[in-house]
Target: Alpha-hydroxy-acid oxidizing enzyme
Amino acid sequence: MAAGLLNGDDYRAVARKRLPKGLFEYIDRGTEAELALADIRQSLDRIKLQQAVLAGHDNVDLSVSLFDRKYSCPLIIAPTALAGLVSHDGEAKLARAAGTFGIPFCVSTQSVMTIEDIRKGAPDAELWLQLYVWQNRALTWNLLDRAQGCNAETLIVTVDTPQGPKRDYNQRNGFAIPFVPTVRGISDVLRHPGWLCSVMLRYLMTTGMPSYAHYPPEYRTAITSQTAAHDIKIEKTLSWDDIAEIRDRWQGRLILKGILSTVDAERAAQIGADGIVVSAHGGRNFDLAPAPATVLPEIVAKVGGRLEIMADSGVRRGSDVLKYLALGSRSVLIGRLPLYGLAAGGEQGAIDVLAMLVEEMQSNMIFAGIGRVEEFKGNAIV
Model:
C-alpha cells in the first residue's frame, strides 16, 4: 500500500488533487441536492455487526460462491464510465487489478477502451459487460456479440437510467460529453499538468482524442465532438419486453442492475434473470431513491432463493461490504474506490485499494467472531 494512504478517504483526497475538478466531481458526486448520496452513507452507518468473543479465529476465509464459480473474496469491480480518463488505459488496468484478486471486472458500455482492447491488455481477467441499451437494437445486439467473442459470459443490464440525471456541478464545471472547451475547463486542466501529460497527452500522441470506444465506428467521435446520433442514445422507453428479448439473445448469465423494490425483483426472477444488483447507482441518478441497505433484506426474503443477489452504492471500507453481506447480498460491486486508487497510483493504486478492502474485511470478521464470509448473512443489527 502506498505510503500514507491508509483508507478510502486518503485515496479520494489524492484523486481530488490529481484529477481535473470536472472529472473528479463527475466520479465523486451525486445528483440534484445529493440527498441520495447522504442517505446511502447514513443507511450504512446505522448498521452494526454482531460480535462474538472467544471465537478463536486468527485468520478468515473470504471466498464466496457466486453462480457456478468460487471467488477469493466477495468483490466485483463495478462498471464505471470513462475510467480511461482517470488513468491512461484505465479499464485494462482495472481489469488486471481485478485479476490479481481473482474477481470479475465489469466493462462499461461507456468505456474509453473497447472490450477487445481490454481483453488484449488483460488476457486472464474475468470480464463482464455492462449494457446500456441503445435505441438502435441492431447495434446493441452487435455489441453483445462482440462481448461474447471476448469470452465475457456475464451481462449486466443497467435498468435505472431512462435518461441522463441532472448534475448541476457538471454544468458549473463545464464537464460534459461532448466536452465543450471553455476558459474555466481549460484552466482546470492546465492546473493539473500531471494528469494532462500522463493521460490526455498520451492519448493524443497515440490513439487520438478519447471517445466512447464501444460506439460503432461511424458514430465514434472524440469527447469534444457531438455524439447525439439517435441510434446510440440510451433507450428511454426500455421495458420488460426488451429484457425478455435480451434474455433470449444472451446465452450467458444475465444480471439486472438498479433494482430497489420487491416488485421489480420478482419480475426479474420471472423473466429469467440469473441475478440482480440492488443498487441506487451510487446516488448518481435518482435523488429520491431509497438506499439499497434499507430495501435489501425484503428483496432477499422475496427472491433470494431464485436469484443471485448483489448490492452496491456507498462502499468506503471493508466493513461496508460486510454490512451488505450481512443483509443478504452474495457479493458487492465497488465503483468509486477503484477509481480513486487508479487516480492515486495507476494499476498499483487500484490493487492497493482492493488489498485495503480485503484487509479491512478480514479484521472486522475477526472482531465479529466469524471465520467464513459466507456465514455473515443475518449478522446485521439495524
